[in-house]
Write a structure and sequence with these properties.
Keywords: Hydrolase, Magnesium, Metal-binding. The chain has about 270 residues and is α+β, with helices and mostly antiparallel strands. Helices cover about 35% and strands about 25% of the residues. Bound molecules: D-MYO-inositol-1-phosphate and calcium ion (CA) (3 copies). D-MYO-inositol-1-phosphate binds next to strand 4 and helix 3.
């Protein structure tokens, strides 16, 4: 398989779906949204964007299956699976906040080998494939060289569920506030990851994410020279539902800071 050629075609597809999402955002009617949960929102744009991606990806790699947020196609491939978040940052999209993206990763067995994250508002297409380096549009990207947490800007997200974890989450946030340049919560895990990859953030952590939130970002961070783990420092970050991504240098301090307050037993 020619991953470079597949990446080019994936980028074209993600750009076209991203343009569709951005266009639908103009004059978007909030009354059309549905609630998956109290604050877990979805719109027809998420669903139509996913359908367009699935149709395009079927052409690109007919033998691949799918893991998608909106469940357009639940067929699993024997070896290859596309892991799709058609619109990462739905809450932002619905509120007209221009911080959302299309995120698509390709898994070969249990390894992500290719990924694209396209932000139509900034016209930034982040992409990587295994062994090929990481890029934003035509330029090579790499993680920041900041040596320590005190020099770093840290991103996170708040889970839709598990409100019982709020207090310990706040404790972790308090610790990061006093040990870093600050904390940001953009509202798109895929953008958080690629911003680690290109050095805008030194680190990112979040609990309760799904594979589609992170698959593409994982290979982009890896190829940009970053480090990824669960809160314990190891484990499967794609399906593991918790993630720490960093430039590598700040990783031990991030794990230490989370570990001081994170009491939930690791599954
Ligand atoms: C969400 C975003 C958000 C994160 C949530 C995700 P969605 O994805 O990535 O930043 O905090 O946990 O579910 O629902 O907008 O695709
Ligand atoms: Ca969602
Ligand atoms: Ca998502
Ligand atoms: Ca989504």
């Amino acid at each position: 398989m020619n991953l470079n050629q597949l990446a080019n075609n994936l980028n074209i597809l993600c750009r076209s779906v991203g343009a569709f999402i951005k266009k639908e955002g103009e004059g978007f009617e909030r009354s059309s949204i549905e609630q998956k949960g109290f604050n877990d929102l979805v719109s027809y744009v998420d669903k139509e964007a996913e359908q367009k991606l699935v149709e395009g990806l079927r052409q690109l790699l007919p033998e691949a299956g799918f893991v998608t947020e909106e469940g357009t196609d639940t067929t699993r491939g024997e070896r290859f699976n596309w892991v799709i978040d058609p619109l990462d940052g739905t809450t932002n999209f619905i509120h007209g906040l221009p911080a959302y993206c299309v995120s698509v990763g390709l898994m070969d067995g249990d390894e992500v080998v290719l990924g694209t994250v396209f932000d139509p508002n900034r016209d930034e297409c982040f992409w990587a494939y295994k062994g090929g380096g990481a890029f934003c549009n035509g330029s090579s990207i790499k993680v920041s060289d900041a040596p320590a947490l005190k020099d770093g800007l840290i991103a996170t997200g708040f889970p839709y569920f598990d409100f019982g974890l709020t207090q310990q989450y706040l404790q972790v946030l308090g610790a990061f506030m006093s040990r870093s340049h600050g904390i940001r919560r953009i509202g798109s895990a895929a953008l958080d990851l690629v911003y680690v990859a290109c050095g805008r953030f030194e680190g990112f952590f979040e609990y309760n994410l799904n594979a589609w939130d992170v698959a593409a970002g994982v290979i982009i961070v890896q190829e940009a020279g970053g480090r990824l783990s669960k809160f314990t420092g190891e484990g499967d970050v794609v399906f593991g539902r918790e993630i720490v991504a960093s430039n590598g240098s700040v990783h031990p301090e991030m794990l230490q800071t989370i570990g001081e307050f994170w009491k939930k037993p690791v599954a």
